[in-house]
Design a protein that fits this description.
Largest sheet: 5 strands, mixed
Shape: elongated
Structural class: alpha+beta
Number of strands: 24
Strand order of the largest sheet: 14-21-18-19-16
Radius of gyration: 26 Å
Number of helices: 13
Length: about 425
């Protein structure tokens, strides 16, 4: 019998008490602050993202603090802080009453992260509110049990971080290797006046000659009918950040009445960021819309038989580099679109395009595909950690008529219990 089992047998053999989160914790909204209000300092400003939005010189929370992001793509994201912070577009969770450890509460919320993410509501900008998480039932085991669980999970977390750091270092090395070979495969050289790509002669066409351009836009977020029950993919930078560069669906969707002139952007298409976060692109495989930060590019009919769209997708990593070096300055950076349309694109034989794609697909899978390669190993480590965390944090309620409690074979909470 391990230490947890002994503590359970001694202190709560018949189960543990459950309470609503809002009954045992203070759920406190943050204070609104804008970039213009920030006075540079070393205090993290925690808002709607997974990392600090800014750094300020004033804090509004001290000590151990749990924060849940309030809005945006990461609404509901749970984070842990043990330093002064400034909570902005988010809310903090702080145990009260002395019978719940802050770190135990954090691990329990982390174990319910997916459930909290599903509480998002709203159209263009999703939100999670304190009132959404207030009713969540949380187990309150005796403090010695909480302390031992926190000790075990802290150890797991530390070991996981070390293992992930090693795997991430290996992954970074593979990425650099991939980028080297990608650049080599896609860079033509001039030999005796002829341009060759991997020994195959190429012709050049300007980007504007081969693509149709569609400027992205954002339907009015104040018009609920544009967003309610939407089925049309509407792509933003968050889609690339969260789901990669080859996309078959988006995080947010719009309704058909939000589509200008009833015309979707056709597929396959390459969307390219030409303002704000410049130097990013993705291959979109469905009819779609995208926001105003992107231009959606579709091959003209006369070039569809000449190009493998995946070859162009890979070549756009070089286009991204050009974009980063050729911006115009106004209130914010934008790509020089006149020059953008003139970017020369090499056209090798279709068989050579397909060969390049086959090679780079293998590299891409090794580096990026979660189903194989190093990312799969990282994901397996995380799943293992999540399994043990879930096992440690699964408790039964104290049964009405008494009875035993088997900690090593936890029983899932029923839907009726979750509603209480």
């Amino acid at each position: 019998m391990n230490r947890i089992e002994k503590l359970i047998a001694e202190l709560c053999p018949n189960g543990v008490e459950w309470k609503k989160l809002g009954e045992v914790c203070e759920l406190k909204r943050g204070n609104s602050i804008t970039k213009d209000d920030i006075i540079p300092g070393n205090i993290p400003v925690i808002a709607g993202g997974r990392s600090p939005a800014y750094y300020h010189n004033v804090s509004n929370r001290e000590g151990e603090t749990i924060v849940i992001a309030g809005s945006g793509a990461y609404a509901g994201y749970v984070s842990w802080w043990n330093q002064p912070i400034f909570v902005s577009d988010a809310f903090s969770v702080k145990p009260s009453g002395g019978n719940l450890l802050t770190k135990f509460c954090y691990y329990w919320l982390l174990n319910n992260q997916e459930k909290i993410h599903k509480m998002k509501s709203g159209g263009g900008v999703p939100h999670v509110y304190p009132s959404d998480v207030f009713p969540l039932p949380i187990p309150i085991p005796p403090l010695p049990v909480q302390e031992e669980i926190v000790r075990i999970l802290d150890t797991f977390t530390e070991l996981e971080a070390e293992l992930e750091a090693e795997l991430e270092a290996e992954l970074e090395a593979r990425k650099k290797q991939y980028e080297y070979y990608r650049n080599k495969l896609l860079t033509p050289v001039q030999v005796n006046g002829r341009w060759l790509l991997n020994g195959k002669e190429v012709e050049w066409k300007k980007l504007g000659e081969i693509f149709e351009f569609k400027n992205g836009y954002t339907p009015s977020t104040s018009e609920e009918s544009f967003w309610n029950n939407g089925t049309i993919p509407w792509f933003r930078m968050e889609d690339i950040r969260l789901n990669g560069r080859i996309l078959n669906d988006s995080i947010l969707h719009v309704n058909s009445n939000a589509v200008k002139n009833n015309k979707l952007f056709p597929s396959p298409a390459i969307i390219v960021a030409t303002s704000a976060t410049i130097g990013e692109h993705a291959l979109i495989n469905v009819p779609h819309l995208c926001n105003q930060r992107f231009v959606s590019l579709t091959l003209k009919e006369s070039y569809k038989a000449i190009f493998n769209i995946k070859y162009l997708f890979y070549y756009f990593f070089k286009v991204d580099e050009w974009c980063l070096k050729n911006t115009t300055k106004s209130s914010f950076s934008t790509v020089d679109m006149s020059g953008f349309r003139k970017i020369p694109i090499p056209i090798p034989p279709l068989s050579e395009q397909e060969r390049i794609v086959a090679i780079l697909d293998k590299f891409d899978a090794l580096v990026n595909d979660i189903s194989q390669g190093l990312p799969a190993e990282i994901e397996a480590r995380r799943k293992q950690y999540e399994y043990y965390r879930n096992k440690l944090l699964t408790f039964k309620k104290i049964p009405a008529g008494g009875g035993g409690y088997n900690y090593t074979t936890p029983t899932p909470t029923s839907s009726e219990e979750e509603k209480e």
